[in-house]
Amino acid sequence: MIIPHPLLGPRDAQEFTYLGDASMIQRPDGTAEGAEDALFNYVYMRDNPAGEHRELWYHEQGDRSWLVVTRNTVTHEITQVELARDVALALGCGA
Amino acid sequence: MRYSGFRVIREAVTGHKGWVPVWRDPEPQPSYDIVIVGGGGHGLATAHYLASRYGAARVAVIEKGWIGGGNVGRNTTIIRSNYMLDGNEPFYEMSLKLWEGLEQDLNYNAMVSQRGILNLCHSDGQRDAYRLRGNAMRLHGADAELLGPGEVRAMYPFLNFDDARFPIKGGLLQRRGGTVRHDAVAWGYARAADSRGVDIIQNCEVTGLRVEDGRVLGVDTSRGFIGAGKVGVAVAGNSSRVMAMAGLRLPIESHVLQAFVSEGLKPVLDGVITYGAGHFYVSQSDKGGLVFGGDIDGYNSYAQRGNLPTVEDVCEGGLSLMPMVGQARLLRMWGGIMDMSMDGSPIIDRTPVEGLYFNGGWCYGGFKATPASGLAFAHLLATDTPHETATAYRLDRFRNGRMIDEKGMGATPNLH
């Protein structure tokens, strides 16, 4: 697989390590009401779709940026790659 | 038709005209007492034990493809019970005992071959860990022997013993472990279940689980609605997709695992070996091919094929363990989709939907578990209580902190 890095251009997937579903960017507030349920879902439960999947890849053998890659889990086609930092800031959880 | 040596001889002298199809190809009935979704090894084993041990009538197995086309025909055929934790070891030991009596139970030659599985260790720490594991196995009635380097050398003199980085310090041997012809497991269970009246319905994809007032009524399929008193889902690899039809989310990610076969060789390897310094396991099939595998590719995937970096990684592991394989050519490789659970252990449990039962999360250890999984799932479906060896495989264990994490990796499915 080739991952089109937004800053570095096309890079071999071997340079990256994989974390999982990009929903992990939005860590729930552990002190809020209902935090137990929210954290349980955050840590353990996954949508695990067959098809388009937004997921976190870390460019370990490169510029060490975290990316949000939108990839089809059936065809491996990659349709969008964003810096996870930008995604987190846009969600208001990167401060 | 009962199979026997006499039967083979009789057919041989009468032109093999007496063989009949091994199972029927029935039209689905409007409803069943129990519908099992998924005609893989686990689903078929469940049907067999439901019919043979729990006296269940009116059982159907629904399969979207054909019998033997999924993971039961895609694994590396290894059976073993070398687990450590209390939640796992009694279950896998029961599975190994069921393998030992499988062919008599099914009247089907599944080529169960207890050729021994040897886990190699490469450091003092790893040897200590294997001693701990071996003792845990023996406490649960399994067999385990800790071998020194000399004993390993006598068994497999061709291994790379004196590697500077990963010398072989010994190994943990389970002599009762081995291999089974995986297709025959699917066919044998299908035939045995069919002979007791179970309808095996192939090419019938489940498109929906019909739930009303928190109770399952049946399954919508590509061949129409099939009513069911109880629905058991055993579709590991696709568990999240099927259970989502009932509105359930699971602690599971789907990953692809590749397996490989070399060209046919003369007999070189009479047991199963696993490499302790990399992830690599190998045995030799009766046709002569080295059957081997390694890690999952590591990212969510529903594609039944993997990528080349993992091929390279697995072959590197093989080469560093037994350099002679460098002379053999890779013949075939393929992929299967695994339910990777959050603690590396499976789930056999009821669900919040009444009448809906779940069996999945097998990671890449599902094949060896086939008989025990079928028996435990049949027990659950028939009695609504967990089988005594499967009490820890609860769906809610992630919420209440009762994980069964053999590798101690935490909630990272791609590392189990």
Automatic annotation (TrEMBL), chain A:
Signal sequence bounds: none
Source organism phylogeny: Bacteria, Pseudomonadati, Pseudomonadota, Alphaproteobacteria, Rhodobacterales
Domain of life, per lineage: Bacteria
Classification via Gene3D superfamilies: Folate-binding superfamily
GO molecular function ontology, one term from the record: sarcosine oxidase activity
InterPro entries referenced in this protein's UniProt entry, alphabetically: SoxD, SoxD_sf
Protein name (Swiss-Prot/TrEMBL): Sarcosine oxidase subunit delta
Pfam families reported for this sequence: SoxD
Coiled-coil segments: none
From TrEMBL, chain B:
SUPFAM superfamilies (alphabetical): FAD/NAD(P)-binding domain
Molecular functions per Gene Ontology: nucleotide binding; sarcosine oxidase activity
Subcellular location: Cytoplasm
Signal peptide bounds: none
GO CC terms in record: cytoplasm
Chain ranges of the FAD dependent oxidoreductase domain: 33-380
One GO biological process term: tetrahydrofolate metabolic process
Principal subcellular localization: cytoplasm
Keyword tags: Cytoplasm, Nucleotide-binding, Oxidoreductase
NCBIfam families in the cross-refs: soxB
Protein name, as recorded: Sarcosine oxidase subunit beta family protein
Biological source species: Meridianimarinicoccus aquatilis
